[in-house]
Write a structure and sequence with these properties.
- α11 packs antiparallel against α12.
- The protein is mostly helical.
- It contains 16 helices and no strands.
Length: 396
Amino acid sequence: MARSIYLAVAATLMLASDSDAFAVLPASRSCRPATHQTVAPARHHRRCSVAALHADLGSSSDGVDNPPDEKDAEVARLLAQASRLRAEAASLESEKAAEDSRAAQRIFATFDTNDDGEVSFDELKAGLENVLKTELSEKRVQAVMTAFDTSGDGALQLDEFKTIEKFRSKLDSLAIEEQTMVKEAANKAKLAEIEAKTMEARAALLNDRAPTQTDKALSVLPYLFPLMDGLQYGRFLLADGEGNPIVFAVAVLYGLYRSIPLSGFVAFFALNFLSANTGINRLVRYNMQQAIFIDIALFFPGLLLGLTKGVLPAVGVSVPESIFVLPTDAVFVTLIITLAYCAVSSVTGNEPNKLPVISKMVLDRMPTVDMFDDEGRFIPRDVREKDDDKGDDNDK
């Protein structure tokens, strides 16, 4: 039995090759081609397979050789049987295709209610709903139309029309796709809701709300720090204002400021510490940081003027005091204009973020909601960026 099955399989495989594969060599002839012949390797292999089949047929299970005529008859019988099987399969396939075509024609005639030789969108929708006994959405019917309308004319011709089974299969796949999309949309909505709640929780830790009137008033006070340190640049302009009440008030305030030991350092560290308190309104915190940067900026013109006064006389260049009046006054006027802009913006509730260079540096230091992790811990922007870069490197 096993030997018969082997012979049938071998014959079927050889039948799948071209007709040259069936050229049977005598059992006594070698599989190696003669020197005067040119035989393709694949064809030679197939002929050797036939020869091997002959050799196998030539030996019985008990070791007794069969006559050559019986071997050839057995091979021919198996090849004929395999050929009949293939013919039967092709016939069944052809009958199935013909039956599908006839079924499609019958359904087409049913769907084509106006007998114009094509099935429109409305006819397809009505026909499918009638056959499938269910209501279909226009979106789903349009998807079916698009899938089978190979000509793209918005209607189905007879050659494009399919059986009800294929239409049903397509509708089922569309339903599965829609269900998948609905699930994905629901998951996205759920994730968005979770993210929104997380952002709300983080925002509660960071006072970025609109400033109150008290916040607006307090946000102006930090600019007294650079004003006190910048009065040195206004000594020429303020010298003639002894009777001016504003000048007098500023002088009194400056005296109190200087009466505190290391007042500049105390003010610097106090503003820097308080600006890190996220419970304080953003406008107040922003102005604290900006006041610090403005005060730092005042150091550079003072350094330049000091070097000029020290270096030029050292090299024998006499510099009159009057030459420093204009640049000193320019620095003081620029400071007053800057502080006036910041004060007016703060009183009106607007963030004074239009100062060149300085405002950009302050904004980079201001904490935002995305700087807090899920546990509410503050993570500076530079640290977060480094962690993101490490994560990207690990992904690579």
